[in-house]
Design brief:
The chain is α/β, with parallel strands linked by helices and 469 residues long. The protein has three domains: 217 residues, FAD/NAD(P)-binding domain, CATH 3.50.50.60; 110 residues, FAD/NAD(P)-binding domain, CATH 3.50.50.60; 114 residues, FAD/NAD-linked reductase, C-terminal dimerisation domain (Enolase-like, domain 1), CATH 3.30.390. It has 14 helices and 22 strands. Strands 1, 2, 3, 4, 5, 6 and 17 form a seven-stranded mixed β-sheet that branches. It has a five-stranded parallel β-sheet with strand order 8-15-9-10-11. A five-stranded antiparallel β-sheet has the order 18-19-22-21-20, with helices on both faces.
């Protein structure tokens, strides 16, 4: 039996559920279809990504502070011990509460939440197959693909979620590994590696390129690696893993220089494969419909429209940063276009954050990108060592770096390593979104003492009048 909708969204993650919510707000009849086996909306982000990882990052930070930092602050706690079972339980509790919150928001905005695997069997028609095999057909004027992404595989290293894990398995280990090897020096690998290092694991990161965080500013990558090394993390850069052999005692990895050369063996009890993610479009019926995809599997779109009338796509399945908040922005813009309104996303104003300790955050262009484009720019930098709040809190690692157009002073990029960098970057995101200048930050009053003053001092530095260093 068919049900008629203005829009059917396939995928219940940040792109999907926000699309359904916005559709409901604009008076469109909407349905959100999700196939997750746990029967929980929220996608990878809420279930096995952003949210559970942040719960473990926070808990492990508290553990390390209590174990190593409290005594220097005059706080005596006695012996500190780890209860990994309770740490996982509080993580699961956070996930449970937020996924139920998504279901509530869908209901509040009169969007139907439908469990099952969605397939586009024709333009304007989605067939949903439930876990019991039963099907129902949904008729829709518009269909939005918001199926997100999946872990990119690594040839020769098969994930079993026991000894060789993806980010999903790394969020649910029952004990602390003696030696965790992380394959990939990107955001996810560094975050999860830092969790288990704080809890007592030896952590080695193997990265194919010659630096970690390869998409971020080069100066930031180098400084951040030094900070992580000081904390105890080890790195093998310009290296590739070509094979893995499992045994009862652990995993032996075959590692070679990226440029070619003699192989070596690295042993670990747990290996985390974290080389990136790829768009997930399996079973959607895109080939039969003729929906265009590129060689890497991304759906080709123009302002979220595919080449097939009435079919749209948002989030990780299309080009742009694979980030939950980018998917949310895509979703809002896409639905507003469907509703006949203006919809647009400025990808130069989408921030990226690494939620380690300290955090790393960026928005806009890197120095390398500006140089490659031939853009003349100015740089303003300020170290947290010279920031009064950071000094008071003994949290002085890192700096703020701002990049502005040499002629117009328009802010082009912002890069921050430091405690709460993910919060501090918001000011720079707003300035870039509004087309503002570094002077707009430099001339704006910032509370004292606060870490945000470091952003202002860096902005002053663009014109050479930093006052506190």
């Amino acid at each position: 039996m068919a049900s008629d909708y203005d829009v059917v969204i396939i995928g219940g993650g940040p792109g999907g559920y926000n699309a359904a919510i916005r559709a409901g707000q604009l008076g469109l009849k909407a349905a959100c279809v999700d196939a997750r086996e746990t029967k929980k909306f929220g996608g990878t982000c809420l279930n096995v990504g952003c949210i559970p990882s942040k719960a473990l990052l926070h808990a492990s930070e508290m553990y390390e502070k209590a174990e190593k930092q409290f005594p220097s602050l005059g706080v005596k706690t006695g012996g500190v011990s780890l209860d990994i079972k309770q740490m996982m339980a509080q993580k699961d509790e956070a996930v449970e509460g937020l996924t139920k919150g998504v279901e509530f928001l869908l209901k509040k905005n009169k969007a139907d939440a439908i469990l099952g695997r969605g397939e586009i069997i024709a333009p304007g028609k989605v067939r949903v197959t439930g876990a019991d095999g039963k099907t129902q057909d949904l008729a829709a004027k518009n269909i939005v693909i918001a199926t997100g992404s999946e872990v990119a595989p690594l040839k020769g290293v098969d994930i079993d979620e026991k000894q060789i894990v993806s980010s999903t398995g790394a969020l649910s280990l029952s004990s602390v590994p003696k030696h965790l090897v992380v394959i990939g020096g990107g955001v996810i690998g560094l975050e999860l590696g830092s969790v288990w290092r704080r809890l007592g694991a030896k952590v080695t990161v193997i990265e194919f390129l010659d630096r970690i965080l390869p998409t971020m500013d080069g100066e930031v990558s180098k400084q951040f690696q030094r900070i992580l090394q000081k904390q105890g993390m080890s790195f093998k850069l310009s290296s590739k893993v070509t094979g893995a052999t499992k045994s009862k005692s652990g995993v032996k990895l075959t590692v070679e220089p990226a440029a070619g050369g003699e192989a070596e063996t690295v042993e670990a009890d747990i290996v985390l494969v974290s080389i990136g993610r790829r768009p997930y479009t399996k079973g959607l019926g895109l080939e039969k419909l003729g929906v265009a995809t590129d060689p890497r599997g991304f759906v080709v779109t123009d302002h979220f429209r595919t080449n097939v009338d009435g079919i749209w796509a948002v989030g990780d399945v299309i080009h742009g940063p694979m980030l939950a908040h980018k998917a949310e922005d895509d979703a809002v813009a896409c639905i507003e276009l469907i509703a006949g309104r203006a919809g647009h996303v400025n990808y130069d104003a989408v921030p990226s954050v690494v939620y380690t300790w300290p955090e790393v955050a960026m928005v806009g262009k890197t120095e390398e990108q500006l140089k490659a484009a031939g853009v003349q720019y100015k740089v303003g930098k300020f170290p947290f060592m010279a920031n009064s709040r950071a000094r008071t809190n003994h949290e002085t690692d890192g700096f703020v770096k701002l990049l502005a157009d040499a002629k117009t002073d328009r802010l082009l990029g912002a890069h921050i390593i430091g405690v709460e960098a993910g919060e501090l970057i918001a000011e720079c995101v707003s300035v870039i979104e509004f087309g503002g200048a570094s002077e707009d930050i430099a001339r704006t009053s910032h509370a004292h003492p606060s870490r945000s003053e470091a952003v202002r001092q860096a902005a002053m530095g663009v014109e050479g009048w930093t006052m506190q260093s």
